[in-house]
Specification:
Helix 1 runs antiparallel to helix 2, helix 4 packs across helix 5 and helix 4 runs antiparallel to helix 6. The mean pLDDT is 89. The protein is mainly α. The longest helix has 38 residues. The chain is 80% helix and 0% strand.
Length: 148
């Protein structure tokens, strides 16, 4: 490793620390708000939103786009399951499962999960496309320099 690589590594480590701190703060705030915001509040979606957005700094600090895509698709699926679970009749569940289903329906907004999932998926596809274009341009540049 050359001495010119050291500032780049330190910069990456610093960005990773900032991302970890930002994520931790968002997660703590989201978790705390889950105990403060009542289920009947119009802001009931905020705790889940903050917990999910807490992953954004970590995902952004990591260069690949596919984790954004996976995160987004899984969140859309979870949101869809939350939405479906709210409409399944109680007769299909045991007593304990009804308690869990009621909690999920009251405390977790499916549209928050789906919205953050769609945004993450779009960002992941955009990032993957940009990286693909960069790679193609680098390969084309490399190939043209070999011909000269």
């Amino acid at each position: 490793m050359s001495k010119t690589d050291e500032p780049v590594k330190k910069k990456k480590r610093g960005a990773a620390k900032v991302a970890a701190i930002a994520s931790t703060v968002l997660w703590i705030l989201g978790f705390a708000l889950a105990f403060v915001v009542p289920a009947t509040s119009p802001f009931g979606w905020v705790p889940d939103g903050m917990l999910l957005v807490g992953f954004f700094p970590l995902l952004y600090a990591w260069r690949p786009g596919w984790p954004w895509l996976v995160f987004g698709v899984l969140n859309v699926c979870i949101g869809f399951l939350l939405l479906v679970a709210a409409y399944i009749p109680d007769t299909n569940f045991t007593r304990d499962m009804i308690i869990v289903r009621k909690h999920l329906a009251e405390q977790h907004s499916p549209f928050t999960w789906m919205t953050i999932g769609v945004v993450s998926t779009i960002f992941g596809i955009t990032r993957m496309s940009a990286h693909l274009i960069e790679w193609i341009m680098a390969r084309a540049k490399k190939g043209s320099s070999l011909k000269d």
